[in-house]
Amino acid sequence: MPADLYDVLGVPDDAAAEELKRAYRKRVREYHPDVNDHPEGDAQFKL
Description:
single chain, mainly alpha, Helix Hairpins, 3 helices
């Protein structure tokens, strides 16, 4: 079963576009391989 992207981003299903964008960018910064050296960070970034 594919991941629910709203759950991945931690936003409600009825989130506005701006809220989705903000949550996405926060996650990208959190898991970006240049910033995060955790072994699973690369896999999370590709999600």
